[in-house]
Records
---
Amino acid sequence: MKRRAQLSVILALFAPLSLFLLNANCRMPQNSETKNMPVNTASPANQERDALSIHRRAIAIDMHADTTQRMVDENIDLSQRLADGHLDTVRMKDGALDAQFFSIWVEPQLYGSGGQSASKRADVQIEAVRALAEKHPETWEVATSAGDIRRIAEAGKLAALMGLEGGYAIDEKLENVERYYRMGVRYMSPAWSVSTSWAGSSGDEAGRTRGLNDFGKEVIREMNRLGMMIDVSHVSDKAFWDIVNTSTKPIIATHSNARAIANVPRNLDDEMIRALAKTGGVACVLFYPEFLEPGWSEKKKQVDAEIAPLVQRASNAEQGSIARKKMARDRVRIEEYARRLPPVTVSRIVDHIDHIVKLVGINHVGVGSDFDGIQAVPTDLTNVADLPNLTGELLKRGYTEEDIHKILGGNILRVMEAVERK
Ligand SMILES: [Zn+2]
């Protein structure tokens, strides 16, 4: 109000000059250069507003964040706006994200070493997610179904879900799959960067020849029976194909991109994306430049070699647990990657989405940021509060509101409902 009043005084005093200036600012595209361009009536400001309102109307689900380990190891208070990291309650609301799958990640060193330690490490993280909802019932609620997510989002609250990353925690016991299902876990990836005895990983030598053994196939069938989604992110190609051939339910990749753009073992090739879509599943793109940008991985290897002494020094200086040592190493990596590696933007994420959509259509793509688990982020998607920038870029590329709602969460809700059905 105040500003408008001031403006009319100025207009009255300097009317001729002001009108001239206004006309100059509102010039219409009349010259021959702009005549044949597609008509875009929306100003950048309007487009931004549209993106935000489309984004807010969607049920947005992030399939993967490693914030759980921060809750346990750093004892962070997720209800506050945090100065570091990628995700907290305040920034999640700013970014209009409705549901977060918290990764229950277990260090592979704990697997097989005396039986119970991997399960214990998982249990502590599950407890931390549950405690978040118990301490802040006005904001958070634990969700275990698509119906829960819809209801919680409708109430304007945030849904906390859980997925086991790497099958280390089930400790080679089939009954533990049900135990984790009952604790609220709704997806599991059979391996992280290190192969288990029963499932190959994309991250080590063993995975090159290892798929699923008989026990691995039993685990998949048990997950199908219980209604737990199977996550193929991190598994070896051979394990991927064994999973596709064993599962009777849709399969998801919670945080993997397209190998056709960034050729790394962690990404999916076109044949895999087609097979995953054929199960009715969804591939969720992640925000890590190494898996987004062609050539970034090679450059990173070079930087890793250069900063190895720095990283080692930071690790040695940290006297705490193996988790705290990892945090110390990651702090150095975050700083050095930002300084030494090429920047990546949200536009590259949408290149991966475009690729998947061109291959298999709009119904098989989603989002899995990997926030708090990655040591570099796109310059315009530095934390969860920036999530509407992804919607803005999708809108710019011509995706409709309906398309965008599917990408942000609708496709995953469909898979959850299909997997829940007995
Ligand atoms: Zn991961």
---
Amino acid sequence: MSKVFLLSTNYTTEPYPVYPLGMAVIAGALEASGHQTRQFDFLVSGKSCAAVAEAVSEFQPEVICLSLRNIDNVDSFARESAWYLAQVRELVELLGSCSVAPIIVGGSAFTIMPEEILAYLGCHYGVTGEGEGLICQLIDQLVAGEQIPRLSNGESAPLTGTRIGSPLYVKEFVDFYLAESGQINLQTKRGCPHRCVYCTYPGIEGNRFRPLEAIRAVDEIAAAQRDFGVNSFFFVDSVFNDEQGHYLAFAEELERRNLGISWTGFFRPQGIGREELRLLKRSGLTALELGTDAASDATLAGLKKDFTIADVLAVNAACVAEELPAAHYIMFGGPDETEQTVREGLRNIEQIEASVVFAFSGLRILSGTELHTRAIADGVISATSSLLMPSYYFSPAIDPQQMNEEILQTFNQRREWIFPPSEGQKKLEVMRRFGFRGLLWDKLVSFTNKPQQGRRH
Ligand code: B12
Ligand code: SF4
């Protein structure tokens, strides 16, 4: 048995604070294999370096595990102002000053650019991908004085079913996130088989859907409800509505158990009709976040989305009919965007009824994606450019400034259309000050004026 200190380095509160689920899963695996853990959440501590130092000095760990969730906030207007790694490097230096324990870093952000991040942060070791299987073995080896590789892949074969770890929640953290965000998070499946050009998710989680057994997933929800009083969840699956229909089996089990919880998640806007939505609603679904991603058929094809605007409008109509608030996330300026597709896209958005639309300008280029290759081919960046600091892809066929002005002109006309992203953040902060908690964007949707929703104010 070894003493392992786990630190969640994430401190951003955009769009709201999110429970450090990656750290919780790693802690769960370590405890299950007999290690003694202490979890520390930098955000919950009030971003206090003194508290980190005190906790490490008091716990005297043999190994330190760092969980790295975000690099930056993927907003081209923010760029370096929302880059989180400098603060994390300071934390690594601090840990080195108060402990001799080796530091292992992992997490979704780490997995995107492991070599560069490991070098920048100055940690001893790094683990990419799913960490709960390998970490226990690595720690045993380290504590036994054996050599381990500087960088390891979490799993040679993706974990399935019962091998996917369960989170070990900490009461103090749950209370903090419930008070700040009104919900905590859970995962019902991993992976995504789609190949959208900009997306890192299949690289982080693998390109196959790997669901938890429905009974086990609902057991975890029931345990969080029983042990911590959680009644509202975000299911963090890359895509909740898998084509195989595991999500429906999960919803049926959730409905059968009648726990009275509410939940939301990320959906792909294709192939969900009113019947599916009715089942999901009975199981507690209160709102959908839709990965619409582009606003015209040409730019959807440019992102390799494999669905069309007609699919998006059909899913949206089903949401409106079932009175389920939906938010569409749409990025302008991606591959094959032209002045014409921007205008066409804005006209298409006007057809999306009774929903929130979050628009983004440019796409963050991340390692291992097809967009990275395309950005080099289109001359947006060079093959040797580092992606550690944010770089954004803008189609060479558009003028980004002119595009932003056009989006702004259209988006200014509706309070539920949000651009630039910082406007959304401001709206959420006002609502938070008024005591609202949860997703918050769903409060911007109204179903009472349905006939007017295609029109401008
Ligand atoms: C769901 C999700 C959201 C939801 C979260 C809802 C909620 N209540 O939790 C929402 C929409 C709110 C959101 C917001 C944001 N997100 Co987000 N999100 C995700 C997503 C899809 C899943 C994250 C998750 O919880 N996974 C489940 C847990 C269990 O997995 P995990 O944390 O990766 O941990 C595993 C491994 O990484 C590893 N591991 C983790 N820690 C450690 C530590 C050690 C030592 C080891 C060995 C291993 C290890 O083992 C764990 C178990 O296998 C990921 C993409 C993805 N598929 O990973 C993006 C992702 C994490 N998000 C990202 C970003 C940028 C953001 C935002 C900054 C965007 C914004 N401007 O709003 C915010 C920040 C939110 C915040 N406050 O931190 C990026 C981060 C990378 C980057 N580009 O910087 C990702 C990777 C997506 C992307 N664009 O590439 N997000
Ligand atoms: S954007 Fe969504 S559907 Fe496409 S690869 Fe990423 S997670 Fe899968």
